Each structure stands twice: as structure tokens, then as C-alpha cells.
Input
Amino acid sequence: MGKPKQRKKPELWKPIEVLHAQTAPVLLAVMALVSSTALAATDFSDIDQILQARCVMCHAGPAAPLGLRLDSHDGLLTGSSRGVIVAAGDPAGSELIKRLKGTSLPRMPMTGPPYLADDEVALFEQWILDGMRSGTVSEPSVSAPSPLAVAGPVRYDQVAPIFATRCVKCHTEKGLMGGPPEGYRLTSYANTISAADRVRVVPFSPEASELLRRIRGQALPKMPFDGPPFLTDDEIALIEQWIADGARDSAGSPAPIPVGSRVRLHGKLVSSNRLDDLTLVITGSTRRDKSPSPGDYIEVRGTLDADGRVVVDRLRLRK
Ligand code: HEC
Ligand code: HEC
Output
């Protein structure tokens, strides 16, 4: 306390400046050696946090893509069904680094952009150079994403793991199918409920939500497109409840009803104004293409009114 802070460095360094030209390199080499052994080499704990935050939502458990589990040091070293993803001492030759940089596609994390920051990628490279040490490993996360037992209204953070593990591999910027199918991204809350072109999630109205129709298989093709396996009944019920509760964000606020937004739904016309369990608002200007009749699989296009009802522009027979 009260001790004046003095910069001692200039004094300490002075002797080096006056050293003889021949001894200086030797001393510097010794110093470099000392400092490199004093500096802890990176180990798994240095990259584990990034893996937990950006990768493990998909790369864990029995459904991990290509069997690649990134929730433990073992998993990372074991690699995928295609082989190892890290080459000792060779970051540039490691599939892991190629995926992080996008020189091998699809780029990881699959939820990107945003991808990892340059200094984060550098940490992975350093870890490979340092010998891919395990170090003090945190507990492998129990990340089977199933908070299926729920108290209170369902929030986005409870359904997001389902989208991340089952949908995002296609419904992202550069996914398995190139661009996002139908321009629909499931990489974030904002994208999932977006009404930019049309809405696929209508807050408080599961039946008017094409997303739910697709995972139930009322609208075809059933999602996920690469199923079976499709979603479990519990997962579908959770997503249905999420929409019924207002498609809330992770903080618990319901989404606003995007009044006037366009919707496009598929399903079975069960009577003149019902699409499965959804009552349609038919008006004098509703068009009927190819005379659909009850029992037919149809496409409905319309807009949302202030109560979240679907005011139909067009009913069209499909198939
Ligand atoms: C939204 C899900 C998702 C997230 C998040 C994700 N991945 Fe992937 N990852 C996949 C899918 C799907 C594949 C398989 C793609 C393919 O066919 O190559 C894959 C493949 C890979 C591969 C290629 C394995 C091989 O042998 O070819 C690597 C490496 C990889 N991911 C690393 C990561 C890392 C590191 C992160 C986090 C920074 C991450 N992934 C985040 C879904 C994801
Ligand atoms: C293997 C790739 C793939 C996966 C995985 C996938 N989808 Fe799709 N998705 C597609 C394709 C392709 C289409 C367009 C199909 C069509 O209508 O011809 C589509 C269409 C959709 C649509 C219709 C969009 C619109 O504008 O009407 C919704 C909603 C949807 N998917 C939701 C999901 C959900 C939710 C999941 C995960 C449970 C999922 N998808 C998983 C490929 C995929």
C-alpha cells in the first residue's frame, strides 16, 4: 500500500543492450528457451469452451454428425466415420482446421455465419502444434439435448437444440443442400420466426405454422428431409407447445403476431374451410385452382389477420 510504482524494466534490460555482440544471441536463445518452457502449452481445456459453446449442440451423443463427438478430448482425437480430423503437428493438413477456415466444406460451425474469430481458430492451430494435449479436462458434457420436461411456457432455448441437431445442417447459409431450402434458415430465433418472405411459425397458432405441419408430415415432404428418423412425438409436442405459448424467445417474451405477413401451407382439405384442424378465412376474392374438394391435398396461400387467422388468397389442388 502506498508504495510508489516504479518501472524497473529499463534498468533490467540495460545490461543486454551493452552486451558484446557475440554473447547476446546466446543469452537471447537461453531466454527464449526459458520463456517457452515457462509458458504453459495449450491443452484441451483451452479449446473446450469454444467447443461447448459452438459445436457440442450438434457434435455430441449418438446422433453426432458423422459420429464426430467434440465433447471430449477422446472424441476429438477419435474423429469421425471418415477418419481422424487432426494431424499431429500439422494444423494446415487437419480437417478440423480446414472446416473452421472454410477451405473444406461445409464450413463449421454449421450455424455460421458467424464462424469462429481468427484468434479462436489460431487457438485450435496452436493446440495441434503443442501436441494435442488433454490437460485438465472438464467433465464431458451430458449434452443429449432433451429438456423435454418443462415448467411454464416453452422458450426458444428449449427447442433450439432440436433445430440445431436435426435441421440446421440444411437450413443454413451453406448447408448440405447448398443454400437454405426455400430460403428458410433455422440458425437463430430471429431467423426461425422471421416473416421476411413468409412466416413458417405463427405465434399462438400451431396449426397455421408450416414448420409444425412439416415435422408432423401433414405438409410434404416431411421434415427433417433426411429422415427417418423423424422427430420423436415428445419433440414434436414440445415444438407445438412452444408455438402455442407464443413462440417465445429465450428470455420468455412471446413473438408478436406478424399481421399482414404471407403464409403458405400444405395439408388436407377436410371441408370447404378447414385445412386439417385449421379454420381458414375464405372471402369473396379467394381463388380456387383446379377445383380442390374435401379429402384433397392442397396448398393454401394467404395472409395473417390481427388474430393470427389465415385469410386465404388461393386454394390449389396439389400433386
Ligand atoms: C448445427 C450443427 C453443427 C454444428 C453447430 C457444428 N457442426 Fe460440424 N458438422 C455438422 C454436420 C451436419 C457435419 C457433416 C457435414 C458433412 O457432410 O461434411 C459436420 C462435419 C464436421 C466436420 C467434418 C468431419 C469429417 O471427418 O469430415 C468437422 C471437423 C466438424 N464438423 C467440426 C465442427 C466444429 C469444430 C464445430 C464447432 C466450431 C462444429 N463442427 C459445429 C454439424 C454441425
Ligand atoms: C437434409 C436436408 C434438410 C433437413 C435436415 C431439414 N430440411 Fe426442411 N427442407 C429441406 C428441403 C429440401 C425443403 C424444401 C422441400 C420442398 O418443399 O420441396 C425443406 C423445407 C422445409 C420447410 C418449408 C419451408 C417453407 O418455406 O414452406 C420447413 C418449415 C422446414 N423445411 C423445416 C425443417 C425442420 C423444422 C427441420 C428439422 C426438424 C428440417 N426442415 C430439416 C431440407 C431439409
Remarks:
- Confidence is low (pLDDT under 50) at residues 1-21, 24-38, 140-150.
- The two ends are 83 Å apart (CA to CA).
- The pocket of heme C (ligand 2) is lined by residues 166-167, 169-171, 176-177, 181-182, 184, 200, 210-211, 214-215, 221, 223-226, 231, 264 (CB under 6 Å).
- Residues 87 and 94 are 5 Å apart (CA to CA).
